[in-house]
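Memo subject: From amino acid sequence to discrete backbone structure tokens
Action wanted: Derive the backbone structure tokens from the amino acid sequence.
How to read it: Take the token row as a discrete description of the fold.
Attached in line: The record itself begins immediately under this heading.
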Amino acid sequence: GSPSGYVACELGVAPENLEEFRKRHESADDEEQKRPEPRRKLVRNELQAIEPAKSGAETAGKLGQRLVSIWKHTSPVGPPQYEVRSRVISEGSLYTFILATDEAHYEAYRLDFEEMVATARFSPPETGLQRLPGGLWMQREFRFAMQLPPEWKPAFGPNDKALFFATGTAHEVFTDNLLVLASPVRELNLQQLQRDFPAEIAKVDARAEVPTCVIVPQGAGSALETVIHTKRGPFEITILERRFSGELRNYEVKFTCETAEFRQIQAELRKALDSFREFRDVPKQGIL
């Protein structure tokens, strides 16, 4: 970075395809231009084939294409600023390379930025999970494990609080996902939580509906299982969440799915939740 610009790389869950991002940028620009004084303009937004001559034949073959989006930001108090975003999908993750700079340095920095992007190499991100016999995936550091629904796979978490993260079907720019959070073990009053939780959800999300909030068996104990219907952008979303105390920690295990998909696979999701277990020691069966 420098006073006149910076570069960055963001890692996220892969969308269904890059075309969905391209269309959303176009829609965002259409809305921006309707403002009395637009603050930015989409000056470029196109899918490009990865060039073997620049990135190498192997990388070009794996990635296929990238989405290049360039926004020009204007302000009455300073010179124009440019933001370049180059997106690629690799190993189930979305990589977004970002260049932000002022107009005076844009052309020079853009050349260096393109060289950096062309020489990037990709490998599967570290998920912190290990496969065990019997279909379990274990969180190596915190020693808990669970099965995943069919066709789901471990993925890089959205933040460092997500100890266990996995993804399922992609729906345009939204992808079904599983998130596990943990906290120090303490007694949970599930009956009180059952009474209070729907109101807490309503305070956070006025559009949310809670059709069920029930106490269910979980291993040797019990869990509060809550189903939440809501919207994220244009998507109808259903969240299936369980909160419970283990021997080692308290857990929140949350599936977030497109609603139509949830209705089809909810039995598999609950089977995965039922499979959750803790390990006090490294499993003796070994790792596959």
Remarks:
- The mean pLDDT is 91.
- DSSP finds six helices and 16 strands in the chain.
